Amino acid sequence: MKLPILTTCAALMCSTALADEIWVTNEKDDTISVIDIETLEVVRTIDTGERPRGITFSKDFSVVYICASDSDSVQVMDPETGEILHDLPSGEDPEQFVLHPDNRHLYIANEDDAITTVVDTETRTVIAQIDVGIEPEGMAVSPDGKIAITTSETTNMAHWIDTETQELFANTLVDSRPRHAEFVKDGTELWVSSEIGGTITVFDVATQTEKGKIEFEVANMHPDRVQPVGFEFTNDDTHAYVALGPSNHVAVVNAETYEVEDYILVGRRVWHMDFNADRSQVFTTNGVSGDVTVIDVASRKPIKSIKVGRFPWGAAFRPTN
Amino acid sequence: MLRRALSTSVLMCATCFGGASSVAAEVNVAIHYIKQEVEAPPTLSNLDPVPEDLGQMGAELGLSDNITTGRFLGQNYELTVTVVPPGDDYAAAVQAALAETDLIVLDAPAEQVIEAADVAEAADALLFNAGAADVDLRADMCRANVLHTLPSYAMRADALMQFFVKRRWDDIALIEGERDSDQAWADTMEASARKFGLSFGERKTWAFDADMRRNAAQEVPLFTQDLGDYDVLLVADAADDFARYISFNTWEPRPVAGSEGLRPVVWHRVVEQWGAAQLQSRFTELAERDMQDRDYAVWAAVRAIGEAVTRTGAGDAATLRDYMLSDDFELAGFKGRPLTFRAWNGQLRQPIPLIHERALVAQAPLEGFLHQRTELDTLGLDQPESGCQAFDG
After folding, report:
1. Comparing C-alpha atoms, which of B286, B312, B300 is closest to residue B347?
2. Are B275 and A172 an interchain contact pair (Cβ–Cβ within 8 Å)?
3. Does A166 touch chain B (CB under 8 A)?
4. Rg of the Cα trace of chain B?
5. What is the number of H-type helices and E-type strands within chain B?
6. ipTM exceeding the 0.90 mark
7. What per-residue confidence (pLDDT) applies to B393?
């Protein structure tokens, strides 16, 4: 059922609207929960395809891309109306993706197929499929657009893709079950989290060699349950906020020294996150407790938890001004 | 005669995938999987036949996983499958395989596992027990050249008892079959119940030969009438013979567990958290059926070899064994935490799912059961009680 969302919104709350939003995919509800950053409440719930996970906005925020994993498609949605504009060919079981800085090419991890699919969002065609390791998941593109990364959960590698040739030029081992990858510091470093290994590996991008490893230790928690997954960076990449899965904590890591400075208690099985516009707040998805924790970055304290749908997975910021 | 097949060809193409890697030297790893076929005892129902390729499909999937990783590192794997018919000489098949490799996955009853381990040429080989859950093999019968990827009966029993403690199902009754394997499973559950301070009441042997499909509703209430009062009824039926007819027909309305109802398993299709859905779908695509306990144990053995080869860049049994028993080894086994080997008896530590046919109920170790080393060591034989002298650890 498609609700006339604009009308509803206008009638109910749009007098205070035009606040920025956090969009959260609910893996087991086939919906997106939209959180108003001013009121910290869910203001819209939008239907999606089956098992939505990865979510990202186009660079101009005119459309939002959603990995509908069990529908075997990437859906393109109008964020104003919540209407699905069209589907992109995505390969089977798309889990996570990243949009190239050219705002045109999507790099998609096909979890069941050990393939990374490159899709042209304008012509809506697949332009390359690249064999990678088993269960690809983490995706990243360097700021200059020259390198794309796929991490594979069971092969335990970061696969380095040359975006001109769409071919692999390096494969580097990391600890068990890599989940997420990010380029930082102007693309000079690549960070990869390993869920079962319990670490983040930092690579020097120029040489593709390991330059550091970050380890985590939560008080009164066996190391096996401290499982780094999603992570994002504060302004100027000074600190990383790292979701630690079933330990129910987020770590704050100093990105210069690679030391963990704080652990913040959040909801159960914390997975991914995103920041608001000025990066003063971070919103974490907590899969098992079905909520989102809002953390105040200055004080490093959780300030609210917001109930969303079942098994929230991805989070993406949307400015509305 | 032995049936043998070279299962999957070797992938030689390291450079075409970029090849740049820290572990560069080419390694060739040959793995043999040797299965002892056993005559399945007759069962009252034939609703769930044992798949002919049980175990073997786990080896095939593990191989395919290893090859995918190995192709980026110049590491090549091949698998040879040998099936030994009932009554044939298992040790001879192992001896023949040892001429070609020192990495063998055993899928056989305990007696054959011991025979295989004691073959003279196996002394420096690395064998994996993926088919026998007998506690003895991890205790005084342990062998230094055998690691166990199948959990012991003791690990499964402890998982169940943790659940009973948590739910305060303190009083237990038990029905067991007449076979030795039923009684061993019953003994293990009783010992575990006592370890966890639960009260173990009546224990009765199921000796009927009636066909329960027709008259379970008549026989079971009477049979269970004199068990007295209890919180949960355990059923020990290793061959899956009569257990299915107990639920809902007991004199007292009580939950059933053990071989029926709430079951502690190694693996089951209802396990889908922790990325398990991906392993399930890869297996189903390959085997055209659901992944079962022994498939998982065999898969874990082949993957443990792959993981150790990936990390060490070596393919010889001595290096791989040392690495697997070290603190550095960990296997991502889709059970929510890293799997490691116990250095004192070679058992692969792993969580035990507690399931019913339709869903995962809980996964042991349950919250609150603590251990100074790892909570996983609350399941099965701990170092002081193991009695295994063959390992240094």
Report:
1. B300
2. no
3. no
4. 21
5. 10, 13
6. no
7. 56
